[in-house]
Hints:
single chain, mainly beta, 7-stranded mixed beta sheet, 4-stranded antiparallel beta sheet, 0% helix
Amino acid sequence: QVQLVESGGGLVRPGGSLTLSCKASGSIFSIYAMTWYRQAPGKQRELVAGITSGGSTEYLDSVKARFTVSRDNAKNTMYLQMNSLKPEDTAVYYCNADIKGRDIIGSYWGQGTQVTVSS
């Protein structure tokens, strides 16, 4: 059984910062790509940032230069450092990871963490 758990969301003022964490646990052999998505009310889920096992990254254009994705492979954890937050960053943030367990490779999702940017 593999689980992903996000943490670090909350309420922050415009211009503020937050760091999200996504920790994988369970029967894990390898973790491949890890990705942050977000979904705002009434909108489709969108890819925010992703990182491969080798450290290559990609970002949504609107968050480039403000957000930084990283991972600690020893801790099976991915992070999203979010700076200069804007009200339009308000959403539920989800992590996704492609994980090889004991017998299968699967794509797993966390439960989501709310980020609200408001004055």
